[in-house]
Amino acid sequence: MFTMQVGKNIRIKDIAKLAGVSVGTVDRVLHNRGRVSDYALRKVTEVMNQIDYKPNLIARTLGSNKNYRIAAIIPDPTLDPYWAQTNLGIIQAQTEWAQYGVIVDQFPFDLYNKDSFQQIASKVVESQPDGIVLAPIFYHESVPAFELFQAHNIPYVLFNTNIREAKPLAFIGQDLSQSGKVGAQLIILGQHGPGTFAVLHIDEDVQDSVHLLEKERGFRSHLEENSKAQYEIVTFSISPNSPTFNQQMAKLMETESLKGIFVSTSKGTAVAASFLQQHGKSEIRLIGYDILTENLKYLRSGVIDFLINQNPKRQAHLGISHLVNHLMFKKNTPGTDLFPLEIITQQNVDSYLGSGIH
Amino acid sequence: MFTMQVGKNIRIKDIAKLAGVSVGTVDRVLHNRGRVSDYALRKVTEVMNQIDYKPNLIARTLGSNKNYRIAAIIPDPTLDPYWAQTNLGIIQAQTEWAQYGVIVDQFPFDLYNKDSFQQIASKVVESQPDGIVLAPIFYHESVPAFELFQAHNIPYVLFNTNIREAKPLAFIGQDLSQSGKVGAQLIILGQHGPGTFAVLHIDEDVQDSVHLLEKERGFRSHLEENSKAQYEIVTFSISPNSPTFNQQMAKLMETESLKGIFVSTSKGTAVAASFLQQHGKSEIRLIGYDILTENLKYLRSGVIDFLINQNPKRQAHLGISHLVNHLMFKKNTPGTDLFPLEIITQQNVDSYLGSGIH
DNA sequence: CTTTCAAATGTGCACGCACACAATTAATTT
DNA sequence: AAATTAATTGTGTGCGTGCACATTTGAAAG
């Protein structure tokens, strides 16, 4: 029907010519800003249906010379090495987009204080950002926050923890139940029953931490389905601040039948490792989370056998990129971006440390 | 010294004003095209040293409306599922950059024919591309190819296999020796000696395949260093076309002491798996490479215990991106991009399949 | 002192899009 | 029929950079 130049891309100008209108009209149709007659609308949409128009995103960003402010709500990075990694990802995204008019403001809250989360959330809304990225680790406190964001029409992206009720622009993280299954698979590998496996939730308020319980659920379900031998699974939910903490851990270490430990938190992994080492029980299989400096030490010395990498840095980085793509490039982001459940060992850990952002 | 507007970025125009010259002169200095007086050159460089000018890449690509042709030299994707994955990565990059005037031409060569590689290489140079990405799987044939590229001043990016003599723009791939070590670590996990481990090189001409021997070297070195029990390691280098292939494999399967098999090629992994299954020896630990459809089947049914993911798709994709960044955005690429040695199991394989390009 | 010519410098347009504003047309009122 | 107003459509400018071309400068030659 129409002769098109090969190689060259279709521009708004071309559409205008084909539809017999001006670029302004096409522009109004594309962004449905109204102020267009039915006739012109029909003409343009007709052309649009026949050709495959892909707007030049490069030109678009240059043309609309907008500035965007993004708020990042994360736990205080100075209080926890895991969230320090997250912080790094945010900083990276920040510097990356800075020259294109994107400003990322961090709003840290206290990991151990639910109220602080709520306070920060309303503070963020007050600052009227164009978008929000957040790690909604507190279930109950998050739901009203989402409602607040929605009421103010601010798009938000979740990472780390998914919450069913939230209708975010995107979720970036892992399938936590599946993550538990990976842990289970690694803990029974080459083991011969019967024996005991321990699940440890160290350092967080488990009552409300959906993500930790999800991991445990996956862990248990895989063991029940797949282990031929008889294994006992025990769960400990303890805070290191508790007066009985040392005592409880010591008792666990001395359990004769103990064959493996699965720790659901990254920080807790190193804690469990130190106890195993102290009690000369390095042979007991230990599986935990994330490549933190502390964990690295124990992984290298063989106390920790496997780490499951949650990649907090990349999660945060990608969260912001998603938001920028949405705001600046008007790109449709995929609803969920599930990260691979990376298995880290003594032998492949360096290949992960060496590679940039993966 | 100079008052700068916060938030706003420095433009060429700003530099010109500060240096007391026109934008044209600044442009000439930036791209050192000459035709600039010593005085002006000094003035501009002075300003450049004081401020941190980051060119707006968005505007740059829009302004210089250039077209780039990239040639991709890879083994024929129709002959091997591994290289089919590579092909997918190239196609993805192709569609991604198409609208910005980047054209990627594929030049497939015959995986089993070294001469075809040489022929294709000179054919590529004839086509005068702006850049080349290639998988130099044949050592001896690659070196003269690199010299040819250099002589014609065409930048090239390597992936999959690194070659010391090549001075590429970038190398994208894995540390193969370390990859073998990961294989070894996974094969002894939970095993109790004594016993036999087999290293299988199936399907390629091992004489010249540096990459396979690298893996074996790593495998052996880790076992020698780390296993307390006595293990015997045997190596088989066989082609499935060989008349004695079935016989040799059958004999291996019946080896009583066999505790594990490490296969160095992705295609060979499925072959080994089928033999294990046929002989009812699924309990023998099997470790191989890559998430190919065939391998997936055996991984799911438990015949394959671990796969090490080389991520051919992403390697190819990133190779092209590196080249585009160099050509179009004039960005300095990092010399080497070592991919993590991803460990794939029954439980985490879906998390890898689900995620897009990571 | 004018002419010639090359080196140095400045100016203007294009890239494709967004957006503000100007111009046109049609409908309604006086 | 002229004037007012609203609805629609078209035009122009800017975003920051690259590049072609025009202009200026200064020195050498006539």
Provide keyphrases for this structure:
homodimer; 358 residues; alpha/beta; six-stranded parallel beta sheet; DNA-binding
Description:
The structure is a homodimer. Chain A has about 350 residues and is of the alpha/beta class. Chain A is about 45% helix and about 20% strand. The first copy, chain A, has helices at about 10-20, 25-30, 40-50, 55-65, 80-100, 115-125, 140-150, 175-190, 210-225, 245-255, 265-280, 295-300, 310-325, 350-355; strands at about 70-75, 100-110, 130-135, 155-160, 170-175, 195-200, 230-240, 260-265, 285-290, 305-310, 335-340, 340-345. A six-stranded parallel beta sheet of chain A has the order 2-1-3-4-5-11, with helices on both faces. A six-stranded mixed beta sheet of chain A has the order 7-6-8-9-10-12, sandwiched between helices. The longest helix of chain A is centred in the first third of the chain and has 18 residues, at about 80-100. The two termini of chain A are about 45 Å apart.
Q: What is the global morphology of chain A?
A: elongated
Number of E-type strands of chain A: 12
Secondary-structure element series of chain A: HHHHEHEHEHEEHEHEHEHEHEHEEH
Provide the residue-averaged pLDDT of chain A: 90
Percentage of residues in strands of chain A: 15-25%
Q: Using CB atoms under 8 Å apart, which protein chain pair has the greatest interface?
A: A-B, 45 and 45 residues
Calculate Rg of chain A over CA atoms.
25 Å
The side-by-side strand order for the widest beta sheet of chain A comes to: 2-1-3-4-5-11
Summarize the biggest pleated sheet of chain A: 6 strands, parallel
Which parts of chain A are unreliable, with pLDDT below 50 for 5 consecutive residues or more?
1-6
Count of discrete alpha- or pi-helical segments spanning 4 or more residues of chain A: 14
Subunit arrangement of the protein:
homodimer
Fraction of helical residues of chain A: 40-55%
